[in-house]
Amino acid sequence: MMRPKVLFFSRVSAEPNARGNATYMRDLMRALDAAGIDVELALLDAVSGPPPPAWDSPATASERDFARQRILETRPHVVLVNYTCLADLLDAAPAETLTAILTHDVCWRRAAVFAEAGARQDGLRWDRDTETVLLAKARLLVAIQTEEARILAEMSPGAEVLLAPFSMRPCPIATPPRPGRCLFVGSDADHNRASLLWFLDAVWPLVLAARPEATLSVCGTVNHRIKKTFPNVTMHGRVEDLEPQYAEATVCIAPRLVGSGLEIKLVEAMGHGKCCVVNERGLSALPPECRDAVLPAADANGFAATLLRALGDEDLRWVIGRRALDCVQCFFNPERTYAPLIDRIRRQAVGSASLCDVSAQSGLTSSPRSASAS
Predict the structure, then answer these.
(1) For residues 39 and 41, what is the distance between their CA atoms, to the nearest angstrom?
(2) Residue 10: phi, psi to the nearest 5?
(3) What is the rounded (10 degree) CA torsion for 111, 112, 115, 121?
(4) Does an H or E element contain 288, and which?
(5) Is residue 151 included in any domain, yes or no?
(6) Which of 31, 11, 8, 161 is nearest to 81 (CA)?
(7) Residue 348 belongs to what domain range?
(8) Which positions ≥6 away from 30 have C-beta within 8 Å?
(9) Which of 3, 90, 266, 354 meets the CB 3.0–4.6 Å disulfide criterion with 99?
(10) How many Å apart are CA 351 and CA 359, to the nearest integer?
(11) How many domains does the chain have?
(12) pLDDT given at position 358
């Protein structure tokens, strides 16, 4: 039997330890490959012509031409685009091809959160109507967390919505942490920058006032656009191997002031059995059954108090870390997270093969879908 084939268009590469979106992409492609599904990642960064005005601008004419040619050459069972902004690329897919969007988040909702917080957002300020039009170009929407899957289903009732969160296998760390060490991991994405600056300005001084020996390690490219320095904070930049950082961390922090989707680094920290302090926005992205596997905090004073409590209570950290490992094992293991998507791609490949047989017998040929087809 022919292996199912997915053609995956993206403006960003799946570079390891670079960004949460790249980590998610790598994780997804690895799971599909392990399931016997061929994935071709077609990067748009080398496409000739004017570059898009913003990272999340709709597909350019050159990108659409490139996609049309690659679809014609590869004849995939599934055409998948990375983020809703690239949905116009799906117009070139034949009618029998499954068109899909890896959404990552709900764009208009993300924009609303930034506006409410008064935070600076990279990229476009999406509205619901614009996003709804683009979502309608796909027959399948892939959501990263449950609440966004519900919203996407409301926005695009004619599409199939599948949940496929980032996956993680539990890998607890046995070595004792460094006392008082906190850890934040994040790329230079706008939500990481805004959230970390809020923590450093509003929360960290309260922590140091009560525990002057506390330290914070910041790993990832989030430091690129943070010019200020802060006491007891080390900006490591991009780190090739995060294992030693997780091993030294007594507590991991996920201060999510703005943003949407799923906090990839939060799942990774939980998968290492770490006690994590999370504010309400980060907490809401987790499955309801996992919300007692982290320590929630509502505001700056609450975040500082909860972090101080965790730093000083080894028994509490053990209980929360154990719950975190159980949560990851149950809700984020690869067999569970990607099973519905893998099954859908396999069924599409079988259906496409049958359709090709019928078409060959009848002399029918396929043609690209119209811009409004779903």
Answers:
(1) 6
(2) -155, 150
(3) -10
(4) none
(5) yes
(6) 8
(7) 5-167+334-362
(8) none
(9) 90
(10) 12
(11) 2
(12) 41
